[in-house]
Amino acid sequence: MRIPVPTDVTNALWEGSLELPPDLNTHRLRNVRGGATSEVALPNPRQLPHASVGRPETWRLQDVYRRAEMPATLISKLDEADFYLVRFSCSFRPRSDDTSIEWARFVVSLLADDGEAEQPTVADLHPMEVHHEIKRQSRVSLSPTLHFYNVEASLGEAAFELEYAELQPIVTAAGAGESTADWSYNEAKGLKIRGSKWMHMLVRSPKSSDSCTAKIDLVGDLMHHGWRIPVARPRRVHERVDQLVVRLW
Fold first, then answer.
1. pLDDT of 115-127, one tens digit each?
2. Spatial CA neighbour of 219 closest among 98, 73, 104, 62
3. Using an 8 Å Cβ cutoff, are 218 and 53 in contact?
Protein backbone atom coordinates (compact mmCIF):
# COMPACT_ATOMS: atom_id res chain seq x y z
CA MET A 1 0.00 0.00 0.00
CA ARG A 2 1.31 3.46 -0.88
CA ILE A 3 0.52 6.34 1.49
CA PRO A 4 1.14 9.76 -0.13
CA VAL A 5 2.30 12.56 2.15
CA PRO A 6 0.22 15.78 1.80
CA THR A 7 1.83 19.06 0.81
CA ASP A 8 -0.02 21.32 3.27
CA VAL A 9 -1.24 21.08 6.87
CA THR A 10 -5.03 21.47 6.64
CA ASN A 11 -6.28 20.03 9.95
CA ALA A 12 -4.56 22.08 12.64
CA LEU A 13 -4.49 21.02 16.27
CA TRP A 14 -3.02 24.42 17.12
CA GLU A 15 -2.01 27.50 15.14
CA GLY A 16 -0.81 30.94 16.07
CA SER A 17 2.30 33.06 16.51
CA LEU A 18 5.40 31.77 18.23
CA GLU A 19 6.21 33.85 21.28
CA LEU A 20 9.23 35.10 23.19
CA PRO A 21 9.77 33.55 26.64
CA PRO A 22 8.18 35.68 29.37
CA ASP A 23 11.42 35.51 31.40
CA LEU A 24 13.70 36.31 28.45
CA ASN A 25 17.08 37.60 29.64
CA THR A 26 18.48 39.82 26.89
CA HIS A 27 21.94 39.72 28.48
CA ARG A 28 22.20 36.03 27.56
CA LEU A 29 21.35 36.47 23.89
CA ARG A 30 24.07 35.85 21.36
CA ASN A 31 24.96 38.20 18.51
CA VAL A 32 26.26 35.94 15.75
CA ARG A 33 27.40 38.77 13.47
CA GLY A 34 29.75 40.33 15.99
CA GLY A 35 29.70 43.90 17.20
CA ALA A 36 27.23 43.22 20.00
CA THR A 37 25.68 46.27 21.59
CA SER A 38 24.34 46.79 25.10
CA GLU A 39 20.74 46.95 23.87
CA VAL A 40 18.89 44.20 22.04
CA ALA A 41 16.07 45.22 19.70
CA LEU A 42 13.58 42.39 20.20
CA PRO A 43 11.08 41.66 17.41
CA ASN A 44 7.59 43.02 17.91
CA PRO A 45 4.61 40.60 17.87
CA ARG A 46 3.87 41.29 14.19
CA GLN A 47 7.38 40.13 13.25
CA LEU A 48 7.14 36.80 15.07
CA PRO A 49 6.61 33.77 12.80
CA HIS A 50 3.26 32.07 12.53
CA ALA A 51 3.26 28.32 13.09
CA SER A 52 0.83 25.43 13.27
CA VAL A 53 0.75 21.88 14.61
CA GLY A 54 -1.31 19.41 12.60
CA ARG A 55 -3.64 16.86 14.10
CA PRO A 56 -1.84 13.48 14.06
CA GLU A 57 -3.03 10.65 11.81
CA THR A 58 -2.72 7.03 12.95
CA TRP A 59 -2.89 3.66 11.21
CA ARG A 60 -2.55 0.16 12.63
CA LEU A 61 0.43 -1.35 10.88
CA GLN A 62 -1.52 -4.35 9.61
CA ASP A 63 -4.09 -2.00 8.04
CA VAL A 64 -1.48 -0.43 5.74
CA TYR A 65 0.88 -3.39 5.42
CA ARG A 66 -1.04 -6.56 4.66
CA ARG A 67 -0.07 -9.47 6.88
CA ALA A 68 0.05 -11.78 3.87
CA GLU A 69 2.84 -9.62 2.40
CA MET A 70 4.85 -9.29 5.61
CA PRO A 71 8.06 -11.28 6.11
CA ALA A 72 7.98 -13.86 8.90
CA THR A 73 10.34 -11.77 11.06
CA LEU A 74 7.89 -8.88 11.07
CA ILE A 75 4.89 -11.11 11.77
CA SER A 76 6.63 -12.51 14.84
CA LYS A 77 7.06 -8.98 16.18
CA LEU A 78 3.34 -8.31 15.72
CA ASP A 79 2.65 -11.32 17.92
CA GLU A 80 4.67 -9.69 20.72
CA ALA A 81 3.28 -6.13 20.57
CA ASP A 82 1.00 -3.84 18.57
CA PHE A 83 2.51 -1.37 16.13
CA TYR A 84 1.04 1.87 14.85
CA LEU A 85 2.17 4.28 12.16
CA VAL A 86 1.61 7.88 13.27
CA ARG A 87 1.98 10.92 11.04
CA PHE A 88 2.81 14.28 12.65
CA SER A 89 3.01 17.65 10.95
CA CYS A 90 3.78 21.29 11.58
CA SER A 91 4.26 24.41 9.49
CA PHE A 92 6.25 27.62 9.71
CA ARG A 93 5.35 30.94 8.08
CA PRO A 94 7.82 33.79 8.72
CA ARG A 95 6.17 37.21 8.57
CA SER A 96 9.18 39.54 8.35
CA ASP A 97 12.28 39.65 6.17
CA ASP A 98 14.21 40.79 9.25
CA THR A 99 13.19 37.76 11.34
CA SER A 100 13.87 34.20 10.21
CA ILE A 101 13.58 30.82 11.93
CA GLU A 102 17.13 29.51 12.32
CA TRP A 103 16.28 26.34 14.23
CA ALA A 104 13.08 24.57 15.32
CA ARG A 105 12.32 21.40 17.25
CA PHE A 106 9.10 19.37 17.18
CA VAL A 107 8.80 17.18 20.29
CA VAL A 108 6.46 14.22 20.89
CA SER A 109 6.12 12.50 24.27
CA LEU A 110 4.13 9.25 24.36
CA LEU A 111 2.00 8.80 27.47
CA ALA A 112 0.95 5.48 28.95
CA ASP A 113 -2.60 4.55 29.88
CA ASP A 114 -3.43 4.97 33.55
CA GLY A 115 -2.28 1.95 35.49
CA GLU A 116 -0.20 0.49 32.65
CA ALA A 117 3.14 -0.91 33.78
CA GLU A 118 4.57 -0.71 30.28
CA GLN A 119 4.20 2.34 28.08
CA PRO A 120 4.38 2.80 24.31
CA THR A 121 7.82 3.47 22.85
CA VAL A 122 9.20 4.76 19.58
CA ALA A 123 10.27 1.90 17.31
CA ASP A 124 11.61 4.17 14.55
CA LEU A 125 11.34 7.66 13.07
CA HIS A 126 11.33 9.21 9.61
CA PRO A 127 12.93 11.37 8.39
CA MET A 128 15.90 10.46 10.55
CA GLU A 129 18.58 12.50 8.79
CA VAL A 130 18.47 14.83 5.79
CA HIS A 131 21.67 16.79 5.35
CA HIS A 132 22.91 17.54 1.88
CA GLU A 133 20.17 18.21 -0.64
CA ILE A 134 16.45 18.56 -1.22
CA LYS A 135 15.00 15.09 -1.76
CA ARG A 136 12.02 15.02 -4.12
CA GLN A 137 9.64 12.10 -4.65
CA SER A 138 11.27 10.19 -1.81
CA ARG A 139 9.84 6.71 -1.18
CA VAL A 140 10.16 4.96 2.17
CA SER A 141 9.27 1.42 3.23
CA LEU A 142 9.61 -0.70 6.36
CA SER A 143 12.21 -3.43 6.88
CA PRO A 144 11.56 -6.79 8.63
CA THR A 145 13.35 -5.32 11.66
CA LEU A 146 10.81 -2.45 11.77
CA HIS A 147 13.09 0.31 10.52
CA PHE A 148 12.26 2.82 7.81
CA TYR A 149 14.47 2.67 4.73
CA ASN A 150 14.57 4.48 1.37
CA VAL A 151 13.17 2.59 -1.61
CA GLU A 152 14.86 3.03 -4.98
CA ALA A 153 12.47 3.53 -7.88
CA SER A 154 14.23 0.83 -9.87
CA LEU A 155 13.25 -1.78 -7.29
CA GLY A 156 9.57 -1.56 -8.17
CA GLU A 157 6.62 -1.59 -5.82
CA ALA A 158 7.16 -2.33 -2.15
CA ALA A 159 4.39 -3.90 -0.08
CA PHE A 160 4.24 -0.75 2.05
CA GLU A 161 5.44 2.75 1.12
CA LEU A 162 5.37 6.34 2.32
CA GLU A 163 5.85 8.82 -0.51
CA TYR A 164 7.13 12.34 0.20
CA ALA A 165 6.90 15.01 -2.48
CA GLU A 166 9.90 16.77 -0.91
CA LEU A 167 12.28 16.54 2.05
CA GLN A 168 14.39 19.59 2.82
CA PRO A 169 17.65 19.72 4.76
CA ILE A 170 18.62 19.99 7.45
CA VAL A 171 16.55 17.51 9.51
CA THR A 172 17.70 15.26 12.34
CA ALA A 173 15.60 13.02 14.58
CA ALA A 174 16.28 11.40 17.94
CA GLY A 175 14.46 9.18 20.42
CA ALA A 176 14.14 5.73 18.82
CA GLY A 177 13.63 3.17 21.59
CA GLU A 178 12.40 5.85 24.02
CA SER A 179 9.03 7.33 24.94
CA THR A 180 9.98 10.87 23.83
CA ALA A 181 11.27 11.73 20.38
CA ASP A 182 11.92 14.88 18.39
CA TRP A 183 12.72 16.24 14.97
CA SER A 184 15.08 19.22 14.68
CA TYR A 185 15.11 21.55 11.67
CA ASN A 186 18.11 23.73 10.91
CA GLU A 187 18.47 26.51 8.37
CA ALA A 188 20.71 25.58 5.45
CA LYS A 189 22.46 27.87 2.98
CA GLY A 190 19.80 29.25 0.68
CA LEU A 191 17.02 27.31 2.42
CA LYS A 192 14.98 28.97 5.12
CA ILE A 193 12.81 27.03 7.56
CA ARG A 194 9.34 27.60 6.17
CA GLY A 195 6.36 25.67 4.88
CA SER A 196 4.90 22.34 5.98
CA LYS A 197 6.95 19.59 7.61
CA TRP A 198 5.86 15.94 7.79
CA MET A 199 7.15 13.34 10.22
CA HIS A 200 6.35 9.66 10.75
CA MET A 201 6.75 7.58 13.86
CA LEU A 202 6.39 3.83 14.27
CA VAL A 203 5.06 3.22 17.78
CA ARG A 204 5.40 -0.06 19.68
CA SER A 205 2.54 -0.53 22.12
CA PRO A 206 2.02 -3.33 24.69
CA LYS A 207 -0.74 -5.79 23.83
CA SER A 208 -2.55 -4.85 27.05
CA SER A 209 -2.94 -1.19 26.03
CA ASP A 210 -6.09 -0.03 24.23
CA SER A 211 -5.16 3.61 23.69
CA CYS A 212 -2.28 6.08 23.61
CA THR A 213 -2.00 9.82 23.99
CA ALA A 214 0.87 12.13 23.12
CA LYS A 215 2.06 15.50 24.35
CA ILE A 216 3.38 17.74 21.56
CA ASP A 217 5.60 20.80 21.84
CA LEU A 218 7.27 23.23 19.46
CA VAL A 219 10.29 25.42 20.23
CA GLY A 220 12.85 27.28 18.17
CA ASP A 221 15.40 30.06 17.70
CA LEU A 222 14.92 33.18 15.61
CA MET A 223 17.59 35.21 13.87
CA HIS A 224 16.68 38.88 14.24
CA HIS A 225 19.17 41.54 13.08
CA GLY A 226 22.04 39.23 13.99
CA TRP A 227 20.64 38.21 17.37
CA ARG A 228 19.66 34.63 18.15
CA ILE A 229 16.41 34.75 20.15
CA PRO A 230 14.44 31.77 21.58
CA VAL A 231 10.74 31.36 20.81
CA ALA A 232 8.12 28.72 21.58
CA ARG A 233 4.50 27.84 21.17
CA PRO A 234 2.49 29.98 23.63
CA ARG A 235 1.97 28.56 27.10
CA ARG A 236 -0.98 30.30 28.70
CA VAL A 237 -2.51 28.00 31.29
CA HIS A 238 -5.69 30.06 31.61
CA GLU A 239 -6.32 29.61 27.86
CA ARG A 240 -5.75 25.83 28.12
CA VAL A 241 -2.88 25.73 25.64
CA ASP A 242 -0.12 25.00 28.14
CA GLN A 243 0.07 21.45 26.79
CA LEU A 244 -0.97 19.97 23.47
CA VAL A 245 -2.20 16.54 24.47
CA VAL A 246 -3.94 14.46 21.80
CA ARG A 247 -5.17 10.89 21.62
CA LEU A 248 -3.35 8.90 18.91
CA TRP A 249 -5.62 5.83 19.03
1. 666 899 999 999 9
2. 104
3. yes
